[in-house]
Amino acid sequence: MKKILIVEDEKAIREFIEKSFQISGCTTLCAKDGIEGLEIFKSENGIDMIILDVMLPGIDGFTVCQKIREIDDTTGIIMLTAKSQEEDKINGLTFGADDYIVKPFSPKELIARANSLYRKVSIMKNKTSKQIEREINDGDLKILLDEKIVIKDSKDIKLTNTEFEVVSLLVQNKGKTITRDYMLDKIWGSSYIGSYKTVDVNILRIRKKLDLDSEKYIKTIRGRGYQWKGL
């Protein structure tokens, strides 16, 4: 059973989201502001996913997302943004969110997005074997595909679920150009409603984590997509 933390200051929206997940058989926890949301996350074990509003009293959703990512990279985060705030979507992904959904939204859309993300989250959270079945060594990087781990100079690089999916797709197709459309379809799903900026922001974050040289590992193929060139 999925455990969902809902961080939303508007009571009506919070209760609407909670009811939607409860009908789907999920366990829910609720917070009315960012500070309470962080406290619940730190004290409650087994949270699979967080539905996180951008505009919150106390500390905003971006700060909450950033603080969560400092201590955990596996919990799924879906941010709620206003329809007109395109910048919110980009910022949410930059701070470590896996996905975003625009208000107003339907229960079906919310649950579909959450289920899609949960499939990725569960793979990372429920690893029972530490055996390395597939390992790619590329210069100073070691990528453990089944463990979903990236190591650089003997140090783990903290990637979110989505970021690792992007790296995995690229590295397994080294030298080939992967279009944004293909990435959206393979990683976010064919039913995903989003723009190419979702891909671009994740690529930007991966590059910053791997190396200061923006195209050392991932090359931009102008007008087409991205290519893993490695070393």
Automatic annotation (TrEMBL):
Annotated Response regulatory domain residues: 3-118
Key words of the record: DNA-binding, Phosphoprotein, Transcription, Transcription regulation, Two-component regulatory system
SMART domains: REC (SM00448), Trans_reg_C (SM00862)
PTM annotation (4-aspartylphosphate): residues: 53
Family matches, as Gene3D superfamilies: 3.40.50.2300, 6.10.250.690, Winged helix-like DNA-binding domain superfamily/Winged helix DNA-binding domain
UniProt-listed PANTHER family: PHOSPHATE REGULON TRANSCRIPTIONAL REGULATORY PROTEIN PHOB (PTHR48111:SF40), REGULATOR OF RPOS (PTHR48111)
Annotated function: May play the central regulatory role in sporulation. It may be an element of the effector pathway responsible for the activation of sporulation genes in response to nutritional stress. Spo0A may act in concert with spo0H (a sigma factor) to control the expression of some genes that are critical to the sporulation process.
Listed name of the protein: Stage 0 sporulation protein A homolog
Source organism of the structure: Tepidibacter hydrothermalis
